[in-house]
């Protein structure tokens, strides 16, 4: 135990941050706002909070709050810091992410997503329980971080004792300094090693396959001691596909040599996927040190770009893309799009190979493409996503004129106007742009405006028990499994749950059947369902139930009248309504954009597709797909005045008729 403690101490002292400990603490003592810049892995996230703690920043009973743009990062670094301090999570060190609070009155260092801190400002405008706030990974410029910085600028004038630290992994921190009245900047001296960059000679047709080939080639042609491999992909699907195809290929190679019959026999390698929806116990495995005879391959989303540092990486393979939430002004909505990364991201990714020794990076795109297709840095989220929730939040905080709020970078005026429109069309703000009672109630729920609205409306519709389940089910990723080579079988299993009019009701059906099978895990695997996801949904359902009960809402079931559930869902999604036009094609009502039903939709089971639908999400690939769809009655849509106008407009050009 003693040597373990010594080990931790030595590791902590070896980090670049440590040499600047005194300077950092002096800067924070002497300045209300400090900007700290340091290479990924220098110890900003795990060490700074501990330095402040050791230096007495919490002796007055207050907390050190550290925000992270990503849930996985908040959870993972909290666990690490707890381990270094020799405490259990929820004791001195805790974390809080949406629907998961692992903090207690004992907690002094609290990691959380930036979204959680925004919620806390709603409840306590002065953030009184904190002595110090660290806005970590500010270079990511997430929407929530940007909004938080704007709020903090005013808040700091009321709380002269509060300390704010902004950290960034890129040198581009002058902007933050300027925003906070020329706050001092400190750059942690660090050493990085050269990384050899290799571009692809030709455009890559399939980056999953290409990444697999590169990884397998590195593994077979270099010595294990030369280092581990980190592969950047865009999301869960291609992370899993890459992991599987590397396993397959290696198995094939070792089988030919007669050295293995299953992948388990290949004992010189371990492959770890990591993405946000991965179960927490699997996430922390990426940090485990393997013995010297084994090589580690980590296949990650951009979570491993700057948020998490995995030691020992010497080879990086970068697919050149990431999944970005982008606002589509044509439809006035966000969609997730696979987009080329920026040059700044590309450099961060390559840099991961040179943290402890010289490394090699393989970019799966041509040098020319990097010059023509990539921006120098990513456009801040605030300039490319839907701002309805942000506007709702700022309104609830009493910001009179949202247009005049101090944004580090101003969002496009059209996006702000669209957000006002959306909030007005769901009834959250009135004709004067002021919050309505519904709007106030909505802002108290940790959900998107549309979901908050259907949950609140379900009280009047008398179907709150069911809507609560649907909302919880919509809050989790991937319910159905579709394992390779068992696609047909799993598709068939999925179709048994279909409720023809609605994917939302299909989700409800899955939940209810799971419940009537006593929430059994075995039942889940028998039906190709992610048991862990359902457990998460059940957890979220219970938490939302508590929020509802706190506000004295009584829940009621719709019984067998499932039409009322569809009508209720329609009230929150009338701005995401579409009309059938030709085979499987739908035209978005407000804008006339053409889209297609996603092949996984339950609606395909209906002989004729319904004339009107609302959808939960738009997926942009080469085709624009509607995901999670429900058939609706046009009369329900017409309840909202402007949609009546839209339908009339359609009527003039189309063959629309009622009844
Ligand atoms: P920064 O925030 O400056 O990028 P971190 O504080 O995240 O740096 O990382 C400092 C060191 O702590 C790195 O060497 C990293 O590998 C290690 N580390 C961080 N999280 C974990 C963890 N969960 N398990 C093991 N090591 C970790
Ligand atoms: Mg960090």
From TrEMBL:
Residues 203-398 form the Helicase C-terminal domain. Keywords: ATP-binding, Helicase, Hydrolase, mRNA processing, mRNA splicing, Nucleotide-binding. Coiled coil: none annotated. GO terms for biological process: mRNA splicing, via spliceosome; protein-RNA complex organization; ribonucleoprotein complex biogenesis. Residues 25-189 form the Helicase ATP-binding domain. It is an enzyme of class 3 (hydrolase). One of its GO terms (molecular function) is RNA binding. Belongs to the DEAD box helicase family. DEAH subfamily. PRP16 sub-subfamily. This is RNA helicase. It comes from Maudiozyma barnettii. The chain holds residues 384 to 1042 of 1122 of the full protein.
